[in-house]
Give the backbone structure.
Amino acid sequence: MVLMKMAFPFEKRVKLAQGLWLLSWFATLAGALTFTLGCFLKTELRRRAEVMDNTEIHAVPNTLMIVGLASLGINYFAGRICQDALDAGRFPRWKNFLQPFFGVSLFFSFLMLMAVIMSYAMKGNLESSLKIGLKNGIRFYKDTDTPGRCFQKQTIDRLQMEFRCCGNNDYRDWFEVQWISNRYLDFSSKEVKDRIKSNVDGRYLVDGVPFSCCNPSSPRPCIQYRLTNNSAHYNYEHQTEELNLYIRGCREALVNYYMGLMNTIGAVVLSVFLIQASVIVSLRYLQTAMEAVAGQENTEIETEGYLLEKGLKETFMEYMNPVLTLLMLNQVSSEAGAGGAEAGSSS
């Protein structure tokens, strides 16, 4: 059963070829945009690599860059095919090329759709990666003399100032780690000794935060030490005071930033996917309409174009049978090889 059959007079075929030529070049620009968006997202993720635990989220920009480059090639050839479709004598040379071309085009279009889905579905992976990465970043904040961690303090400070955030979940995360290096502690001081002795792990913990947590919009000078001690500051109540620190945690700030970025990119790439799908569908109609012209003396006759010569199930099985046959042959040959090896060892 032919699927979605449509009549194509000569004038309609010419208009389809000309319109598809323009659409293919527009899709080429859209593919370049997809590649650019992938590069931009990749760069943004790499900028925060020090506060991310894994690189699973990089699957999104990597996929975008691959499908963007593939789209350039696919639409270039689509444009060439459209040009030759205007000449019935030149079009037949594409006959053997078109079937694998459509297979490749459908694969990369599916990959593009997967990139759109991943851009919306990777929030959990991003959040878990940032949770561990920021926790480690705060823990190593003080290690300015340790190779491999010497820029961790600068990274966290710049991050907190740029995204107007503090800590992992909130500013209280800084109370649970020693973020001041021993190099800058006076161990002859009674206060320092008492704080270290009062901690089971021998760490110098304070109810304070780094300067980068201070909110410059606050009218009060920044209070970054003894935050829970009401008597240490004039006219200050820790429980009710609107602290002059950034209240939002950096994990929430980064998740919101990256998900906003990926959702926007996802919407753009979805539009590109629809354009690409239009190119593939239109090119299929043009191919089937032009194949009916082959061998005809009058090339201006009316022909019929369609998407599929058979139903969806029959077409799917037609493409899958060679693949399944190849897999079965590989399995049989591997079993035969294993049997021969066993026979050889037993002898």
